[in-house]
Amino acid sequence: MALKDKVVIITGASSGIGAATAIRLAKDGAVVVISSRNIKGMDNVANSIRRINGQIMSIKLDVKNEDDIKDMINIVKNKFGRIDAIVNNAGVRYAGNIDEFDTIELDETLDINLRGVYLCCKYAAQVMKNQRKGHIINISSVASRLGRAERSAYAASKFGVMGLSEAITEELKPFNVKVSTICPGAVDTTMQYKIKSKTERAKMLKAEEVADLVAYILCLGDNANITEVHIRPVLY
């Protein structure tokens, strides 16, 4: 019952970790606000939540667009009167050697994975500071602590998310706003479909396992928080 009627925004919620998290939190009684550029994917998630009589709202969002983010935060605040939590999950991943990496893909990686998270934190924090309570959860990656070959742009964006999270943890602590960062290892999502075999994907984490972790963190008591947690597949 800890999540009953809590208003939770989830970005990148049309598939993968975001979709699984939306469905899991809705099952736990939260008021789930899903956002994504993918309208069709969001409709599928929303229908899944309605089938379990969950509370759902969908907002089209491009995290590269600051006005989109401001509008989303204002819509949710005006409709529900508060924002209890935001799960910053939207992300992309491109691979390539640094001397060959496409600058367009670099810009998109940093815009979505880092700048988008930063701006979502910024505008959510404005609301949460005023209400003197809230929880920001940033979905990062094990790449936030361990760089790998051909993942320079991705690692740079995720290391940035970790630095951002650590800084705002201290900033927002006096306002009773929690900040948590989840760093998953390989997760079987659409990001993996084109590059990994079914056998490899079977060994990865399931999106639902990361969603379970989000729910656990949000259910902690007011005086407890998990600031950083790594979850990795055992066999992959």
What would the principal axes of the Cα set say about the shape?
globular
Strand order of the largest sheet: 3-2-1-4-5-6-7
Number of structural domains: 1
Estimate the helix proportion, in percent: 40-55%
CATH class: Alpha Beta
Structural class: alpha/beta
How large a portion of the residues is in β-strands, by DSSP E?
Answer: 15-25%
Number of H/I helices? 8
Mean pLDDT: 96
Count of individual beta strands: 7
For this structure, the CATH topology is Rossmann fold
Distance between the termini: 34 Å
Q: What CATH architecture label applies?
A: 3-Layer(aba) Sandwich
Order of helices and strands: EHEHEHEHEHEHHHE
Detailed description of the structure:
This protein is of the alpha/beta class and 236 residues long. It has a single domain (7-231), classed as NAD(P)-binding Rossmann-like Domain (Rossmann fold), CATH 3.40.50.720. 47% of the residues lie in helices and 17% in strands. The chain contains eight helices and seven strands, in the order E-H-E-H-E-H-E-H-E-H-E-H-H-H-E. Strands 3-2-1-4-5-6-7 form a seven-stranded parallel beta sheet, sandwiched between helices. Helix 1 packs across helix 8 (207-218) and helix 3 runs parallel beside helix 4 (103-131). It starts with 6 loop residues before the first strand and ends in a 5-residue tail after the last strand.
